[in-house]
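Re-run with default settings, no changes from the original entry. Doing this only to confirm the output is reproducible before filing.
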Amino acid sequence: MRIGGWMTLGAALLVLAGCTSGGEAPKADGTAPAGDQSKPFKVALLTPGPVSDAGWNAMAYKGLQAIEKELGATVNNQEATGSQKLDAMRSYAQDGYTLVFGHGFEYNDPAAELGPAFPDTFFVTSSGGKTGPNVGAFRFYLEQGFYLAGYTAGLMTKTGKVAMIGGDRVPSIASTFKAFAAGAKAARPDVVVIEKFTGNGQDVAAAKQATLAAIGEGADFVIHQANAAAQGVFDACKEKNVKAFGANLDQNSNESGVILASAIINAEPAFVALAKDVKEGKYKGEVRLTGMAEKSIDYVFNPAMVDQIPVEIQEKIETERARILSGDLAVPKDEF
């Protein structure tokens, strides 16, 4: 009888263990349960280009560094394009990473595909519309900064033609270009907006040739979404004495000396806030829109060139900025 009693108790304990070994169930509000606090908080970043590009990729890397500093995370980053995206995200999940950032719209599909297979890893991309319990995106409302750059170009162009030079043709870039064009046309309805894509955000020579072609068509102000190839845009503008705009990071101090202003993303607060939610078990798969009101987006003049912008034009630009911040002006953006 004594042996049987111990066997019954052991069986009961085994049943109880089996009922609880699968981890915590999702909370009623859909947020993830708090993770095991004894487990290292590991965060990875995938980018489409080098984090030394002083632009799109560098901006995300600054966000990753802020997570490491402020949250004590173990971090890692790598470039991943094409079929590498899915493989790299899967590898990080298999290695026990809690959070994997894919920096660009192109990472959203792989994230959505992998999410169900790795419920303990959160996949978050910079833009994209696919979500799940552990899959989400944050969208920087960079269109606001691009609108103001376009508005500046429309007010200042002498030729009546401005240009946009892109690398990879992806929805997030196309949306910022539409905002730039909208700003230019708000300032000058008859302005001609030239758009060119090279198909490669790493090809500096191609970006320079595309920019020279646009300048040859009459453009005297140029903005880019060329990532690591941006230097080709700036070099072409310097060669032809044309003004340019920086994008993603503050590129005003670029050695070319042609950048009038930059439409920038302040990535660190958004990256840290999302990572903190994940670490504390508060994250819910969603698309977060963050813009000027949240201080994630800004439009900054180059202090070395601001005297080339007439005061009355500066005042008009600041009026548009105020309208954006107040909500009176909703800058157009594509949904994707």
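The domain at 142-265+305-326 is CATH 3.40.50.2300 (Rossmann fold). Residues 1-35 have pLDDT under 50 and may be disordered.
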